[in-house]
Amino acid sequence: MGKLIVANWKMNKVRVEAEAFFAELDGLVDNHSKNAYAVCPPATILHYVSEVAPKKMKVGAQNVYYKESGAFTGEISVKMAKDAGASFSLVGHSERRNIFGETNDDVKEKITALQNDGLDVMLCVGEHLEEHDNLKAVLQEQLSVLKDVDIGKVIVAYEPVWAIGTGKVAELQDIVCAHKIIKDYVKNMFGRDVKVLYGGSVKASNAGEILSLDEVDGVLVGGASLDPKQFAQMINTEC
Ligand code: 13P
């Protein structure tokens, strides 16, 4: 069965760079690959990317604000992200939580706003290094925002904070353990199966072993997703 490979470009790439990325990606992706793939570009090129990305590729926002409109300088609403071509949005990325002070309450509001407007949700969760001994409680608290949410339209991304952009990947058995905690909690609390992606220093050279794990439904990739060669190699991985 195929898996889901998602690029999170973070605050990288302007239009010409995106154009060059897709021109190169086109010749590298194996069209017979069973894997699905998606990209979350910066908001400024969301519309452009949704026009030029391959038809098969979903396009998502990196963040949205939960208010419908009004005096919220610098923010984009769900309706705006949707209008620009997004079919889903990341929510609760650790960079949003840690740099911009996003709380679980904000995350909950964003999930509700996205679902009200028909967009899918990619909820990011993960522990700081010093929280690792307390992994289960930390993840469960972050997942508690899924109460009264349509879980069928949610994918969870497990991204240990200490593994993001550091080159340090979680051990395979730790990835399995965290994904089991997430899947069991969602099943027990909300009665639904949920897909879980792994993120944190995934690159072409380690994606194969991570994607081969049964508990891993895909990967959310930052730095390495900026390179069309690495991203194509991940899409082409047989899982
Ligand atoms: P890196 O792949 O650069 O570690 O980033 C992971 C991430 O934060 C994806 O959302």
How is this fold's topology laid out?
Blueprint: E1 4-8, H1 15-28, E2 36-40, H2 46-52, E3 58-61, H3 78-83, E4 88-91, H4 94-100, H5 104-116, E5 120-125, H6 135-143, E6 154-158, H7 172-190, E7 195-199, H8 204-211, E8 218-221, H9 228-235
Bound molecules: 1,3-dihydroxyacetonephosphate (13P).
1,3-dihydroxyacetonephosphate binds at residues 8, 93, 159, 164-165, 199-202, 220-224.
What features would you describe in this structure?
By secondary structure, this protein is an alpha/beta fold. The chain has one domain (4-235): Aldolase class I (TIM Barrel, Alpha-Beta Barrel). The chain is 38% helix and 16% strand. The chain has nine helices and eight strands. The protein has helices at residues 15-28, 46-52, 78-83, 94-100, 104-116, 135-143, 172-190, 204-211, 228-235; strands spanning 4-8, 36-40, 58-61, 88-91, 120-125, 154-158, 195-199, 218-221. The chain has an eight-stranded parallel barrel with strand order 1-2-3-4-5-6-7-8, surrounded by six helices. Helix 1 (15-28) packs across helix 9, helix 6 (135-143) crosses helix 7 and helix 8 packs parallel to helix 9 (228-235). The radius of gyration is 17 Å and the shape is globular. Bound molecules: 1,3-dihydroxyacetonephosphate. The site of 1,3-dihydroxyacetonephosphate (13P) has 14 residues, from strand 8.
